[in-house]
Amino acid sequence: MTSVPATAAGTLARDTAAGTKRVLTGYRPTGPLHLGHWAGNIETMLRLQRDPGYECFFFIADWHMLTTHYDRTDELPGFVEELVLDWLAAGLDPERAVIYRQSDLPEVAEMALLLGMITPLGWLERVPSFKERLRDMSERDVANLGLLGYPVLQTVDISIVGGELVPVGEDQVAHLELSREIVRRFNRLYGDVLVEPQPLLSQTPLIPGSDGRKMSKSLDNAIGVRDEEDLIRAKVRSFVTDPQKLRLGDPGRPEICPVFALHRKFSPDDVDRIERTCRTGELGCVECKGILADHVVAAFAGFRQRRSELAATTGLAAEILAAGAEHVRPVASATLANVRAAMHLG
Amino acid sequence: MTSVPATAAGTLARDTAAGTKRVLTGYRPTGPLHLGHWAGNIETMLRLQRDPGYECFFFIADWHMLTTHYDRTDELPGFVEELVLDWLAAGLDPERAVIYRQSDLPEVAEMALLLGMITPLGWLERVPSFKERLRDMSERDVANLGLLGYPVLQTVDISIVGGELVPVGEDQVAHLELSREIVRRFNRLYGDVLVEPQPLLSQTPLIPGSDGRKMSKSLDNAIGVRDEEDLIRAKVRSFVTDPQKLRLGDPGRPEICPVFALHRKFSPDDVDRIERTCRTGELGCVECKGILADHVVAAFAGFRQRRSELAATTGLAAEILAAGAEHVRPVASATLANVRAAMHLG
């Protein structure tokens, strides 16, 4: 153990800090992080962790991964380990946030069973992301009970640690609303036991991939945060641009160009000049992509350096997760005990 | 502790007995036992427990109770305690069977979450008893996720203790077949981990209630095993009989008479004479019901005596369940560990 401490004991003091809000966010370990995750999740988590007003719970949602990837669990241990190391290299700090794995909390499974008993099927069948996921996986396999029950499990993830705030994008507010409804229904049936979580709206820029659609591993259009320099450059070169800008001198429309969308994120000091010279036609796409690749490579150089140092420490991820589990289990146990008592169970 | 031992240690020796089959059956604690349960469940359990070829696991399915009774959990602790005492008074013996409560096994909840991830929604939506239950509760409330997931939880109840045989009536074979399908799907995806349970067909007589329909607490047509003599007599008097037999002398049709159905069960030495004299008209319904009431009262006199003795021992039910939990948890833990390992989960 070098820069990363083995225990998260530092957060204990913060548990009792007056006025802090408990915030929770999780991540499904379905593969390597890409730039879209970075801009969408990691930067939000770093911001929350730095803010003394928040007590952060960051978890790896390995059970959620099963809702769509149940037939690929052989990849799971590797994905979990790599995600922990990615988080640490990105600067997530077990001294400032509780970092843990969902499946280390059997209490979550039991509470999910209990909350499932009071969650109307209709509420779950109407969830838009259920229909989206159904469509995503329709060619591969059927939908399972776990997929339908996803929002219940998510509600438990939040409630079992008393999560007060959940960072969500505009499009996920409706999803969190379902968790709030389940919590309200529980409290109405059994008494005021669970905290009703609130959305913490985060403006995350939409990061397009090489084909102009939202960057996504499954669309094979992503630049990974761990990609080597050569691969980053090759991927940036493969990006589509304004189809009306065919050669140097043609005026471009930055507002429809995915390369420009990435410039906004990764070339903040250069973005005005790039926009202007793209419009005039002065800046060609080849050069423009070269500038972006330089910035992306530079942005992740420190990350890649730290990441390879961390990977050299055998067992680091397991150690971090064990410490996180030790930290969060008493919280989860206490909530479950309250839930059981309220339901007259044992 | 008098006749009932505090621990079920006796079964340990039987765990290793060669050639024994592990058999499992459970019961939802939704209210007092009645004669229909007695003839349908208790007698089967007593027979299994006496047979050295079986290793018996008898459990109280309190989580299952929530699938339909989630808004009546205040009744649950009382129902659980009374069911344990009823079982003991009936002769179920913790020296011969592991007697435990479902919710004492958090491993069941976790394994249910995992099996839910591989159980197609279509399989569950097609279960006839799901539709029946939907209809049963349609007036009271909506159906919840737990109701749909019932067969998954049931599959876990069986598999987690390595249940090889499950006593079922003809009408439940299809239900067990779903558990077998879930087990096969798990084994196909992750390797040969779970035991595929087989049905143990039991011929249980259909016990009608006072209105001629199947005896059921919810139809308010039941004679409880703990009913006092006067109440038993009053309830037997209220039974419908052959509507063509209006007065003494009218010939009756025993084959359509619910009172005669109970005679078959409770008046074995007298049943031929009763059938004959009913048909001739010689035996009137009032007298016939008096004979039945005598037999039912006599059949449960010993039970009621033992039951009230057991009730005098404070904390007996809790003690029995604690001992059962201690016994069954290592079995459940071992299965869950195998399941997790097969799925590459930590």
Quick tags:
14 helices; homodimer; Tyrosyl-Transfer RNA Synthetase; three-stranded parallel sheet; two-stranded parallel sheet; 8% strand; Rossmann fold; mainly alpha; 346 residues; 54% helix; disordered N terminus
Describe the structure.
The structure is a homodimer of 346-residue chains. Chain A is mostly helical and 346 residues long. Chain A folds into two domains: 226 residues, Rossmann fold (3-Layer(aba) Sandwich), CATH 3.40.50; 88 residues, Tyrosyl-Transfer RNA Synthetase (Orthogonal Bundle), CATH 1.10.240. Helix content of chain A is 54%, strand content 8%. Chain A contains 14 helices and five strands. In chain A, the strands form two sheets. A three-stranded parallel sheet of chain A has the order 1-2-3. A two-stranded parallel sheet of chain A has the order 4-5. Chain A starts with 9 loop residues before the first helix and ends with a helix.
Strand order of the largest sheet of chain A: 1-2-3
**What kind of sheet is the major sheet of chain A?**
3 strands, parallel
Q: What is the CATH architecture assignment of the largest domain in chain A? A: 3-Layer(aba) Sandwich
Tally of strands of chain A? 5
What series of H and E elements makes up the topology of chain A?
Answer: HEHEHHEHHHHEHEHHHHH
Give the mean pLDDT of chain A.
90
Spatial gap, N to C terminus of chain A: 42 Å
Rg of chain A (CA only): 22 Å
Overall geometry of chain A comes to globular
**Which ranges of chain A are low-confidence, i.e. pLDDT below 50, for 5 or more consecutive residues?**
1-16
Mind telling me the CATH class of the largest domain in chain A? Alpha Beta
**What is the CATH fold-level name of the largest domain in chain A?**
Rossmann fold
Q: Biggest interface, and residues per chain? A: A-B, 45 and 45 residues
Oligomeric state of the chains in view? homodimer
Helix count, DSSP H or I runs of 4 or more residues of chain A: 14
- Percentage of residues in helical conformation of chain A: 40-55%
What is the total domain count of chain A?
A: 2
